[in-house]
């Protein structure tokens, strides 16, 4: 038991150091990004197209590091949750422009009926946005060259739970990956961070929700379960 505690302590300490390091990376990255942008414009003025292309690649790569750092911080730092009654439809409507834009870029059609009202859930709307954004992003990325993204809200009878389903028509999750998709840093993508689903799971843990996945060859459905308010 003592060894187990020591192991947990060590992991917690490593987590703290890592989170601190990630946090400290933010400022230098912002500065590098800023000066790169200046360089990009200067090269554009001068007509150095090739070099301008390099700066664009560098900016993209910096954005990737930024994403990684943000997701890592979300995972490692205990974040305070601000609970309030939330209408899930409103949360989805707010992120719809971002999803539509991403979908358009990937030739994906989005199906979501926002009209109906559902029982409210006690949650943190900012954190919920992150969960749904991550799931929709994954769905769109899974459908490499077009498909349909369907978002549904259901009231589960007899359980006081609301289910938000994010369904795609992608190739499904390969058998070998099914066990691992929620592990931090597990990714099958060339440019993936492998942190999206870990972040989702962590957030749902914090707000008393849950996440399930069902995947077949015709597509994948992630279901987010949230306890809803009853009156
Ligand atoms: P990332 O998107 O950076 O790879 P995630 O944690 O969001 O990290 O996802 C982990 C892995 O789970 C993905 O690399 C992919 O293999 C798998 N995955 C997630 N969502 C889907 C989906 N809708 N369809 C197929 N595979 C998926
Ligand atoms: Mg992802």
Structural description of this entry:
The structure is a single chain. This protein is an alpha+beta fold and 231 residues long. It has helices spanning 2-46, 49-76, 88-105, 125-142, 175-178, 196-206, and strands at residues 84-86, 108-112, 121-123, 147-156, 161-167, 210-216, 219-227. α1 (2-46) packs antiparallel against α2 (49-76), α2 runs parallel beside α6 (196-206) and α4 (125-142) runs antiparallel to α6 (196-206). It is globular, with a radius of gyration of 20 Å. The structure holds adenosine-5'-diphosphate and magnesium ion (MG). Residues 134, 138-139, 142, 168, 170, 173, 177, 181, 186-189, 192-198, 220 line the site of adenosine-5'-diphosphate (ADP). Residues 20-230 form the Histidine kinase domain. This is histidine kinase.
Average pLDDT reading:
90
State the total count of DSSP E strands. Answer: 7
Rg, alpha carbons: 20 Å
Poorly predicted runs are: none
Compounds present?
Answer: adenosine-5'-diphosphate, magnesium ion
Give the distance, in angstroms, between the N- and C-terminal Cα atoms: 46 Å
Strand composition percent: 15-25%
Order of helices and strands: HHEHEEHEEHHEE
Number of helices: 6
Shape category: globular
Q: Helix- and strand-based class?
A: alpha+beta
How can the largest sheet be summarized?
Answer: 5 strands, mixed
Spatial order of the strands forming the largest sheet: 2-4-5-7-6
Residue share in helices? 40-55%
Protein name: histidine kinase
Domain Histidine kinase: 20-230
């Amino acid at each position: 038991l003592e060894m187990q505690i020591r192991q947990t302590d060590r992991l917690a300490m490593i987590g703290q150091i890592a989170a601190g390091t990630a946090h400290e990376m933010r400022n230098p990255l912002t500065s590098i990004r800023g000066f790169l942008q200046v360089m990009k414009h200067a090269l554009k003025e001068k007509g150095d197209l090739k070099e301008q292309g390099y700066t664009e690649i560098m900016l993209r790569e910096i954005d990737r590091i930024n994403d990684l750092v943000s997701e890592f911080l979300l995972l490692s730092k205990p974040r305070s949750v601000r609970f309030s009654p939330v209408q899930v439809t409103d949360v989805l409507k707010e992120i719809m422009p971002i999803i539509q834009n991403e979908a358009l870029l990937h030739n994906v059609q989005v199906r979501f009926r926002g009209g109906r009202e559902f029982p409210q859930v006690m949650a943190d709307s900012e954190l919920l946005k992150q969960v749904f954004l991550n799931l929709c992003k994954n769905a769109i990325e899974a459908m490499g060259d077009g498909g349909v993204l369907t978002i549904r809200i259901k009231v589960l009878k007899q359980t006081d739970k609301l289910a938000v389903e994010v369904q795609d028509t992608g190739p499904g999750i390969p058998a070998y990956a099914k066990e691992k998709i929620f592990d931090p840093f597990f990714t099958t993508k060339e440019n993936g961070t492998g942190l999206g689903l870990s972040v989702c799971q962590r957030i749902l843990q914090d707000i008393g929700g849950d996440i399930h996945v069902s995947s077949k060859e015709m597509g994948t459905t992630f279901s987010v379960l949230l306890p809803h308010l009853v009156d």
